[in-house]
Design brief:
Helix content: 55-70%
Distance between the termini: 48 Å
Number of helices: 9
Largest sheet: none
């Protein structure tokens, strides 16, 4: 879509916290109105609607919309966001294994500012499956580069959690 549309979507999300919980449907209506401006086959429509449902506490309604956005070809930064958010919603709806399968390939994809979000969400999915050591390893590995000291130690500890011999 054009920059004006993107700017209006960004402005809508910037005002999200101004909506009280009981006004969640009003926020979703704002997003729906913006989506109505898009071509009917745009992947941005279901993505933005999924985000709105998810952010207002309805992971169950967000899941099929994230899937639709990805099926329509949502890629790049927003595609990666959709995978992260879909994995989180899958976890919230009791399908953490699907979240793990969706996000694990993202560990090897091109690096960007969403890398830590991938690892954090994957760690939550793993924890929901009782795989806490793997999840902790991911989180420590993501945290290590941000520490002012101990980066090497934390990275080694992270690896040791899942490979005690290595």
């Amino acid at each position: 879509m054009n920059q004006d549309w993107e700017d209006r979507v960004t402005a809508a999300w910037a005002g999200f916290d101004d909506y009280a919980e009981e006004d969640a449907s009003d926020f979703r209506a704002v997003i729906d109105a913006l989506v109505a401006e898009l071509p009917s086959d745009s992947p941005l429509g279901p993505f933005e609607q999924a985000c709105a449902w998810d952010s207002t506490g309805h992971s169950d309604k967000a899941v099929p919309l994230y899937r639709e956005a990805l099926a329509r070809g949502l890629e790049g930064y927003k595609g990666r966001r959709a995978k992260i958010q879909l994995s989180s919603s899958l976890r919230n709806t009791g399908r953490a294994e699907e979240g793990v399968k969706l996000l694990t390939p993202e560990l090897d994809s091109s690096s960007d500012e969403l890398d830590d979000a991938v690892r954090a969400t994957l760690a939550l999915c793993l924890s929901s499956l009782g795989r806490d050591r793997e999840g902790l390893s991911l989180v420590l590995g993501a945290l290590a580069p941000h520490l002012p000291r101990y980066q090497r130690s934390m990275a080694n500890y992270a690896r040791a959690l899942v490979d005690p011999e290595g």
